[in-house]
Design a protein that fits this description.
Elements lengths: L2 E7 L12 H9 L2 E7 L12 E2 L9 E2 L1 H9 L6 E11 L2 H8 L3 E6 L7 H6 L3 E4 L8 H13 L35 E3 L5 E3 L9 H19 L7
Parallel strand pairs: 1-2, 1-6, 5-6, 5-7
Antiparallel strand pairs: 3-4, 8-9
Helix pairs in contact: 3-5
This protein binds S-adenosylmethionine.
S-adenosylmethionine (SAM) binds next to strand 5 and helix 5.
Length: about 230
């Protein structure tokens, strides 16, 4: 199965962007995922290629027109799950990423200006997803972030298939933050001449002890940094 993403945008050249590099870039080449960036402006009919208009009720900014976006949407043969990237939406968290990565086709609508006419979202059953409690100038960076998080979970994309389940926020590890990592050299002397050793337990070869140490570190880190995500 190829994970396919349709993107409705005013800036199709923003894709694949960073996703054309590294693991996601290789996965794109290998056909693990594909995308189609559709320029909403191609579906305008006036000479100025207008996609927005002033808001009913007054106020600042412009709103993207439902009729133009609908034409762009209807040009997609199989839109699959329809998502509007929006700061008002359900927050993107790892369980939702896992769910989206297991979906065959997504259509992501990227807003600009003040956003999209509500009637388009209601009429076509778009769900709204936010990447965080802050406001971006457009949905494209949010779409790229959502796509990145999904693509790395696709079968064969990451070298070590066990890695994904052990990471911060994974339901498999109770949603905890990940324990700290260390690599060579075992003793590192920093630029000020201070020596930093790797915790002994990690070099002990005792897998049960290592697992317990990591679990304890994860719990302590989560308690300290993110008590809001600790379960009772
Ligand atoms: N007026 C909107 C509001 O206050 O909710 C913000 C519009 S924002 C300037 C333009 C577009 O950026 C939105 O339509 C949405 O597609 C995208 N966007 C902004 N922040 C986002 C976020 N946190 N998550 C996902 N998309 C976001």
């Amino acid at each position: 199965m190829t994970f396919h993403i349709n993107i409705l945008t005013l800036f199709p050249d923003m894709f694949p962007g960073s996703l054309g590099q590294s693991l996601s870039g290789k996965a794109l080449e290998n056909g693990a995922w594909s995308y189609n960036a559709i320029n909403i402006r191609d579906f305008t009919e006036d000479v100025h290629k207008t996609v927005d208009d002033t808001p009913y009720g007054g106020g600042a900014g412009m709103v993207m027109r439902p009729d133009i976006i609908e034409k762009a949407l209807l040009s997609i043969e199989n839109p699959g799950r329809k998502i509007y990237l929006s700061p008002r939406g359900q927050q993107l968290k790892q369980p939702l990423v896992q769910e989206l990565a297991a979906t065959e086709t997504l259509t992501l609508l990227c807003g600009r200006y003040e956003g999209v006419d509500q009637r388009l979202l209601d009429a076509h059953g778009f769900e709204e997803i936010s990447i965080g409690d802050y406001v971006l100038s457009g949905g494209e960076p949010a779409a790229l972030i959502m796509m990145d998080a999904c693509i790395r979970l696709l079968p064969g994309v990451m070298g070590n298939k066990d890695t994904a389940g052990e990471e911060s926020h994974s339901p498999e590890t109770g949603g905890l933050l990940e324990y700290p990592h260390y690599t060579r050299p075992a003793e590192w002397v920093d630029a000020d001449g201070n020596t930093h050793a790797v915790p002994d337990v990690l070099r002990s070869g005792d897998h049960a002890k290592i697992e317990k140490w990591r679990r304890d570190q994860s719990e302590a880190l989560t308690r300290e940094r993110r008590p809001d995500i600790l379960k009772d």
